[in-house]
Amino acid sequence: ITSGLRFFEKKLTIGARTHFASERIGGRMTQAGGLGPPVTWPRYAIYDVFGSYKISEYAELNFSIENIADTYYFDALS
After folding, report:
1. Residue 52 in contact with residue 60, Cβ under 8 Å?
2. How far apart are CA 73 and CA 50, in angstroms?
3. Rounded to whole angstroms, how far apart are CA atoms 45 and 26?
4. For the whole model, what pTM was predicted?
5. Checking DSSP bridges between strand 12-21 and strand 2-7, what pairing results, if any?
């Protein structure tokens, strides 16, 4: 989910985004490379904030703070 607002004739943009993932069942690998019990990745929610300011026709300042809650997670296919 991404949401944002624009101000000052669209020169300033601020917003936030979040990414949710439910619990997932993974493979059956063990450290030795053999078969083991199924691995489960826990659910998570990641929150980011972002913004930009158009200084001129040729310059724009961008910023973002990602994972502001410092959540430990496994991304898809990791």
Report:
1. yes
2. 21
3. 19
4. 0.69
5. antiparallel
Phi-psi region at 77: left, alpha or beta (left = phi > 0; alpha = psi -120 to 50): left
Q: Which amino acid is at 19?
A: H
pLDDT in tens, 7-62: 999 999 999 999 988 887 765 555 566 666 667 778 899 999 999 999 999 999 99
Tokens matching residue 34:
């053999």
- HSE value, Cβ hemisphere, 13 Å, CA-based, for 3: 3
Other residues' Cβ atoms within 10 Å of the Cβ of residue 4: 13
Q: Which tokens in the block code for residue 72?
A: 């430990």
